[in-house]
Amino acid sequence: MVGKNTITKLSFINLFHLLHFNLYPDIFNNCTPEEMEKRVILSPKNSDCPAINENVLNIIPDVLKMYLSTDSVSCNNEEEVQNYPFEFINSLTPSGMPPHRLNSKVGAIVMLLRNLSISQGLCNGTCMKVQRLHEHCVEASLVTGSKRGRTVIIPRIKLSPSDANIPFTLNKLQFPKLLLSSLLPALLL
């Protein structure tokens, strides 16, 4: 019921199905890889993006590969480390960091979250298309920038965000990339 002071909220899954099946049923079909690289989904809230990304990833016709990060904490007092269970540590995803569970498929568009090599075009925000998934590295081709089309290898690296809101240093060994289907306000699909 919509009243004077009431706003009806569409859930992100309903929004995704509305986009995919009703408004734009061919949004992912009958288009070249180049056209797919230019598609976007706008998301008003960053918190909705992971679910939209998972739904888009499910549409890509390839085998899903899950990468789990190796997370640890460093404290001034080493005895404090025991106060933080692994489930809690793994649930943390500070801004600009990949999640503990990073799903990917060949054909997915991903964004680099760290500067790896500026001269090679591997800068924060660079978009890439996944070509091959290996245990300890990902092969991808650049879809943005002056090095567009070039194949690169992205390794797992140690990431340590500086977050003043947590009383320890989080260390995360994971690929410095994030699945891109929707981000706030919009990026490549």
Automatic annotation (TrEMBL):
The domain of life for this entry's organism is Eukaryota
- List, for all copies, the residue spans of the domain called DNA helicase Pif1-like 2B: 87-133
Record Pfam families: Pif1_2B_dom
Q: What is this protein called?
A: DNA helicase Pif1-like 2B domain-containing protein
- Organism of origin is Octopus bimaculoides
